[in-house]
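Q: Hi! First time asking for a complex rather than a single chain. Here are the components, and I think there are two in total. Is that enough to go on?
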Amino acid sequence: MSLSRRDFLKFGSATAAGVAVAGEALDLAPVEAAATSLKIKEAKAVRSVCPYCAVGCGQLIYAKDGKIIDIEGDPDTPHTLGRLCPKGAATIQLSNNPLRPTKALYRAPGSDTWEEKPLDWMYDQIARRYYDAREKHFIEKEKNKDGLAVTVNRLDAIASLGSACADNEECYLLSKLNRTFGIVYHEHQARV
Amino acid sequence: MARTLAMFTDTSLCIGCRACQVACKQWNELGLELPEWTGTYQNHTHFTDKTFRLVRFIEEPKPSGDLAWLLMSDVCKHCADAGCLNACPTGAIYRTQFGTVNINQDVCNGCRYCVSACPFGVVSFNENTGTAKKCTFCNDRIHNGLGPACAKACPTESIQFGFRDELVGRAQKRVETLKAMGFKDAQLYGADSSGFLGGLNAFFLLLSKPSTYGLPENPKLPQKNIFVDSLLSIGSALLVGIGALVAFRQRGTGGEA
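A: Yes, that's all I need. Here is the structure of the assembled complex.
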């Protein structure tokens, strides 16, 4: 392509003028806003309650592609207005945490080492030990202060300590299970 | 340019819970740093590439013999006259439409001029990415209509986020209230836009003098020293040159005698 000096000046000055006009009118703000994407923008927000203490701050859990990507305070909660304490602000570590053990570990009585065991074996052991303890220590009748035998159906050998990370339904099931066994030491971490 | 956004940290309300610190780490996915025991509740000791928010725990002896426990949630100040921004040779550090100072991680070449140019020791270098890191005021959040994660998490509203002009008015009223309550050293740090560094976009209400909190009383940009320092260098070079000439001449005359 041949370009005469006249053409060069013509195109050159036109380009310069165009840039000058565009530069005046150019507002980069919308471009910047579009370029700054929000990671929770297309995530599904689910209302939940902080699992830790008894205050029960509302939380918004943002999930995308089946994975939790962010947990923060729910501004619609009347008593917190979206605020969280440091523990609550770190709730995401319950699900996304490379430091959490993912395999069942077992330490035999008297041993100082942990060994990996299959989860099914764990369930079997828990059931067996529950059963054995109950068979051995169950108190069906007890004498009261008048010397009369009264039915108590009590199991003193097992205590149950609930977790604040358990939700309402889990707590209900745990209570039912404990009462069925006759467990009376039925406690919870948040009340200790 | 949109109205300047700012963060007002009222240290008189801070309870030192560090929710801001955790919320910052959580949102920005900054990762773990091992804590170190320094004799106070403060962790960590300084800003790093993984710690953009830092609650300082300061014990100050009172005239009565008691200790005052001063808590302060420290953060990048997003100065109106920012040392890091002035020092950046690649243009990676820029001022956003809201007046905050941000680092474009794709452009940063990791020269670390900004690290030494910051009068508050905020900007830090990340060895993994090879770029400089600092608080962005949650750039992604404020561009999408949300406040920064730290301000949202703060349970006592010690950290307030909003338009700068509104916040300065609120802060001045709060200082008057505190002074009436007997906190005679209550003062604002960086709220005055005619003051040092053209005012800080993250300004503070302090209950004691700034040096107690480890803040410079009158921060200056290192760049301001360049002119005087270069004159001094030239002057000392001249002096050394003259001295050398004189020294050689004496030796020359001594040899001839």
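A: Helices of chain B lie at 19-28, 83-87, 113-117, 139-142, 149-153, 164-181, 226-256. Let me know if you'd like any chain examined more closely.
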